Every structure is written in C-alpha cells, then in structure tokens.
Amino acid sequence: MTEDPRALLRADDLRLAFGSTPALDGASVAVERGEIVALMGPSGSGKSTLLHCLAGVLRPDHGEVWWEGRRLDTLPERRRSAIRLERFGFVFQFGDLVPELTLRENILLPLRLLRAPRADFQRADDLLDRLELVEVASRRAAEVSGGQAQRAAVARALVHRPGVVFADEPTGALDSVTGEIVLTTLVQLARDHGSSIIIVTHDHRVAAHADREIVIRDGRTTAEVIA
Amino acid sequence: MSISRTLLGLLENEPSYGYTLKHRYDELFARTKTLAFGQVYATLGRLERDGYAEVVGVETGEGPERRRYAITTEGVAELDTWIRTPEPATAFAQSTLFVKTTLALLSGRPPREVLDAQRGVHLARMRELTKARTRADDIDRLAVDYEIAHLDADLRWIEEASERLEHRDRAKNKGNRP
Ligand SMILES: Nc1ncnc2c1ncn2[C@@H]1O[C@H](COP(=O)(O)OP(=O)(O)OP(=O)(O)O)[C@@H](O)[C@H]1O
Ligand SMILES: [Mg+2]
What we know:
A: seven-stranded mixed sheet; 7 helices; B: mainly alpha; Arc Repressor Mutant, subunit A; three-stranded antiparallel sheet
C-alpha cells in the first residue's frame, strides 16, 4: 500500500457485499488533514457504500478503516456514533434537516447534542450570516426552498468544526447556480477551519473544487489522478 | 490534428497503398472534409524520410507506379507514444482525442488508458479554472465559464465512452466463458 500512515482518515482494501451483491471489492482511500477529495464513479459503483464505511456507519466485511491513527471499523457502534457526532459532518443530496425545527435550531442541533458551551452558539449565527440565511433563520425547514435548506445543511455539517465532512451528491438536487453557491461556501468554510471534505459527485464541475479525485469502478478504487 | 500520425496508425494495421489509406481515412475520420490524394502521398514521403515507414513493394503497369508502404519499428514506437500522450486541455482538442481513441480501439491498445490520461489533463485544467473563477471579474468569468463548459462536455463524453467500452468488454468476457 502506498497510503500515508499519517493520513487523517484511511481505508485499506475494503470489501463489502450486500447478500451476493459485491458493493466494495478492494477500495482504498487516504485523506490528509484539510484535504478536499472528490469521489467519482458510475452509478452503483459503490461510492455511497464507501462513504458509509469511511464514516463508520457500515462495517466492511474485509479491510480496515483508520481515523486519526486509531482503528475505526472494529469499534463498537456506541463509540463509532460518538465519533460521528463529534468529529464528522454530513451533507446529503436532500438537505435531511428536521422539518419541524427552524433552520437555526437545525444548525444548533449538533452543538446541543454535544452539550457544547453556550458561547459556541454564536457560530450558528455567524454561519447563518455567511450563508445569507438570516432572513429565513426562524422559518421551519419544511418552509424554505431546496437551496436554502441545502445551505442550512452545510452550516449544520460545519458548526461543530468537524475533522471531516462527508458529502454525498450535496448539489445533486440544485440548479447549477445555486449548487455553485452551496459548494463554494462549503469549500471556503472547510478551508477556513481546516476540515477535510470527501465529496461524492457525478459532476466534473463539482469535482473541480477538490484538490484531487478518486475514481471507483465496480467497488474498486482505481488510480488516483493527482492535480 | 496530425494527419501524418493518423496515417501511420492506419498503416500499422497492414502494409497499404496510398489510395487504400486515403479511403480508410475518409471512412473513419473525414466527417466533413476528405483527404486529398496529393496530401496522402506527400505525407507518406515524409514518413519514409523520417524512418517511420518504408516501401515494401512497387507495382508498375499503365499509369503511375504504385508504392506499397509498411510501418517500421521506429514508426510503431512513435505511434505508440503519440496515442498515449494526452492532448493539451484546450477546448478544441476533442477531435484528436476521438482519433486517438479510435486508433487505440482498432489496434488493440487499451482505449481506456487514452481516455483516463485525457481525463486527468482535463480535470487538472478544470481545477485551475475553478480556482481562477473565484478571483475573476465579470468578463473573465464569462471566458472561464465558457472553457469550463467545454471541458465538462468533453469529460462527459470521456466518461460515457469509458463506460460503454467497459460494458462491451464485460459482455465479451462473459461470452468467452465456457
Ligand atoms: N442497503 C443495500 N442493500 C442491498 N444492496 C445495496 C445496498 N446499498 C447498496 N447496494 C448495492 O451496492 C452497490 C453499490 O451501491 P452504492 O449505493 O454504494 O452505489 P453508488 O456508487 O453510490 O451509486 P449512485 O451513484 O447511484 O448513488 C449497488 O449494486 C447497490 O445496488
Ligand atoms: Mg450513492
């Protein structure tokens, strides 16, 4: 393996089958601190599955996942879910906000779950400001546009200053101008905080925001194209 | 696009007369403008001078003599390098990319390597433009967006071609299984 052992997040030779369907068949990834990586590949090639393994949501049948020098995939679910809450952020294709809560409450959610000090709550308002969401901050998530919801999802993924943001087609449901705004903000904020991003996408314009890309085909990662 | 390297690619398949090469070229690559005979013979002369092709037979009879050309070892090496070298990521590189992919396919070289190498060059350029875009004023931005859109179109074609070739190979492998 050529993977750097000091990588922030690393996966070696992951294999995972759903019944008789192999979803991962030798996937390896190494992500450095602050690095932005695009994960590309045809539909069904295993991108989402790989993301879930890296985030400790799914356990691979074979292979290892290492987070900050510690083995992640063998930890009990309780420990993995604690790491997810504290150190990871997530953005999915469809905002995935709690519809009954306001945008501001949605963004505060990770801080409340982490029992963060009150002083940190200011960050939510800073993010609302930066994402131009102040006017709709007290609207419920169910009552805003897709683009506004997606920007709030970006804020929620970053509010606790995670080590890594996992983004699965974060702009897939948006038009290209709105998508561009969401993406630029996500990338800028992550760079400001030194957070890494792994972004799954079919769109080369999205991938072009990353420092490099990893291609996956039939569950296997192929040569990494380095900038 | 390099006509001389394209003819070399066609010549690799089998030793040929100039007129055969011209018709093969027109059939594969001349979507709008066919090749002139004069250009074919001049190009073959240059390939011979450079040691990439040689005359392996001359047919005499009525009319002009006809020379049969074959590719040399140096010619194969030169062609190989050309096919494997990705094109610069300019907005109009796609026709040469198409020629290289076709020649790779016809000659049993892996076309996926051609496509993957080009993909890397295109994406690197797109990354560069995406960075430049954040500092660009409105006019620059129009130019940058224009180039990005064209690279994106090329990349989609590369992606689709890769996938189609892969499906084809998979189907072929299945067929070969006892
Ligand atoms: N929960 C599941 N149960 C059974 N099969 C699954 C499950 N999740 C994924 N798969 C299968 O595993 C393979 C990889 O799926 P995955 O969702 O990782 O692909 P993807 O690259 O994210 O595709 P897309 O671009 O369409 O989102 C596919 O064949 C899929 O059908
Ligand atoms: Mg997916």
